[in-house]
Amino acid sequence: MENPAFVHHAVVLSLILFALGTLGVFLRRNVITVLMCVELMLNGVNLAFVAFSRAQGTLDGQVLVFFVMVVAAAEAAVGLAIVIALHRHRDTLDLDAFNLMKG
Amino acid sequence: MMIDAVLFYVFAAIAVASAVVVIGQRNPMYSAFALVVTLCSVAVIFGLLGSPFIAVLQVIVYAGAIMVLFLFVLMLLNVKREKDSPSRGQRTLSGVALALVTVLVLQAGAVLLRSRPTPAPDYDASTFEMAKILFSPHFLYAFEATSILILAALVGAVVLAKKEL
Amino acid sequence: MLDDPLLKILPFAILLLPLGGFVVLALFGDWIKRDKEETGAAWLACATVIISFGLAAWTTVRLYGLVAGEGGLRFFQPYLGYEWMEAGGFSVPYSLLVDPLSCVMMLVVTGVGSLIHVYSVGYMAHDEDRVPYFSYLNLFTFFMLLLVLGGNLPLMFVGWEGVGLCSYLLIGFWYRKDSAAAAGLKAFIVNRIGDAGLILGMIFVFHAFGSLDLVDIADNAGSLAPEGLWEFGPATIAALLLFVGATGKSAQIPLHVWLPDAMEGPTPVSALIHAATMVTAGVYMVARLGPLYHVSETAMMTVAVVGAVTALMAATIALVQTDIKRVLAYSTVSQLGYMFLACGVGAFGVGIFHLYTHAFFKALLFLGSGSVIHAMSGEQDMQRMGGLRKRIPWTFWTFLAGTLAIAGIPFFAGFFSKDEILAAALGHPVLLGIGLFTALLTAFYMARLLFLTFFGDFRGGEEAEHHLHESPWVMLVPLILLAIGSAAGGFVKIPEIVQPVFRLGHGHIPHVAWLPVAATLSAIAGILGAYYLYLAMPELRAGLASTFRPALRVFAAKYYWDDVYNGFVRRVVVRGSDLVLWQGVDNRVVDGAVNRTATITGALAEMLRPLQTGFVRQYALLILAGAVALLGYLLWP
Q: For the domain that residue B38 is a member of, what is the CATH number?
């Protein structure tokens, strides 16, 4: 718990996770998979917060993580509800099929 | 200590590997499971960073609730393997995305190289301390507000997913 | 400066009584009236004005209890305690000015006003709408008093506008008649045109003096540099602009056109507003600002010339009128011209003197004509009258007194004031000549009116002859009182009383012996001329008429003023508005700008449309690109 290098490496890890998540959002065509990649991004961010909180010695970063998790939960719930509604309409989960906003 | 370093590197590797699986797999079910693995590894790293509260929270809320919700929906909608052969527009998209993400990583990397954060001494992140801050006037409003947020999400999810209003 | 507490309150009481009368009648009039024949509301209105007259007399007496200042001037400025407007250096307090000039005006307004109120009780006895009528009369009295008592130009202007409003209401009183409604509008609109000049004039006055208080203006006018002929300095411009307002209110050229049409209103209204009081407001204003006008030679010359020319023109038109009230209306315009002539040659006090005598005899003449019309059951055409002197003797004798006064027969009121005007004009031979000739014409047309109406044989037919009857006492008593005033009023030395107000020293008017003689002779000549042409040898008329036919046609057409104005309004104003302002500016410029803006916005939007492809991932990509760019910018060392 006192290894000084952890913090720096944890931040690097968070960067990698975030980058992977972003890539996933663009590469995948299934809506639910995209949502999962968004969760991945959020995780990366959480990790960074905790790491910096450790570096600073205060607990503010961890409190923020707490709130991020709450919000992520809410967002996941509502997002999936929307996905279900979309599926009912078009019977597909392909992101490119939902282009009614064209023009 | 040595054991900590080993644990850290092992679980970091697992996290990255399963993240790659999440974004690479064609079958969404496999992506979901891989994500669960990622989440749990990250929880371990939280613990290694000295935040047991957050680590447990990660497992219970994220892996335990959110991912279960994802799995429920996946199974409800009977999602199949994703179709192959992305079109040419899709490939351009991916290329550009890749490039941008690389740039992003490089930028962040440059920042990190300039400053290497180190842990501070006297770090106590126990549940008690967390509770002290969370219920302090500083964060109390936000805390209560999140309960309303959850309520709103609850109602919203129910309304959106109903067959008839 | 004053410890006479009564003098502080009285003027406000005088002002507010008629206003109170108006409010009570407006709110409760119908309840007071209750029954068709009742006259309670009418007498209430009379009471307020009569009491005001009493208070005015009392105020005058108390004024003379004050210590006289420089040049024998006594004045007092009662102040209500607040300001109407206050902005930086500009302040308009609620203050009045009580001095000899305003006292004279006050007494004339309330005195003649009370007599006319009383007369109206009889004249309007059978009219359904008499409650509004009396309320308007009271309101008018209030505004007129505010005009003459106001201590600064804006307050005077409030009164000015207010009397214009009441004039409109009263001219168009029988509004169901199209011509009456139109006449009311014409009066108001022409007045408004003059008022534009008045407001501009006020602005220039403020610019020159830094204050709009009447005492300040009078005191400081003397320190302005005198401006010679055709020198358009600040005083000249201010005076000329204010005079434009005066021509509108007092019916001088070119804004005189509304007065003859104003005869559509009830006769007492014509007597009060268009003879004795409202139309004299212009004269009052010029006299009040006399010190300012005196500085500018151009303005004085303009006032005198306009007055003289108007007097002459109106007298010629009166020669050929057949409606009894029209003759009197043009006569009023003519006499007002005389008043302005007096002011224009520097004799402001004499102008006010003539205003005072004119109030008596013109009100008398109008009320007398009302009595005639009443006897004739509404007929106003003189060609259908005749020989009435035996049937309505009281009316006849009082009317005669008025006629002699206006003609300038010695010892009647008009003689003194007209004589002084001519004496003041001695330095300007052309104006003097116009004045004398107009005096002849005045005597002629008034005698013509007298002869046609009261002498000879009755030409109105059997039916009308049956109904001829003398007016009731409530109408005759005011006539008698006014006749006494017309006869004896000239002996009050008004010029001396008001002279200190103008701060011009003793207005010394030369008196040559031959002038009164010449004036009297021209008056007698006029009367004799009318006698021969209308009574003794009417055959002469046809011959004279054919000789002077072109001139007579111009007179009858009122010098084509109305036609010119009508044509101008119809062709230039209306068509101009239609073609230029409506189609050109409104449709093309304004609407065009709005429509073009919308079109351009639409076009821009069309250009940006392709950005919206509808693909969510592309949008997300753009967000990412933006974030990366921003980060790059922020991180750039």
A: 1.20.120.1200
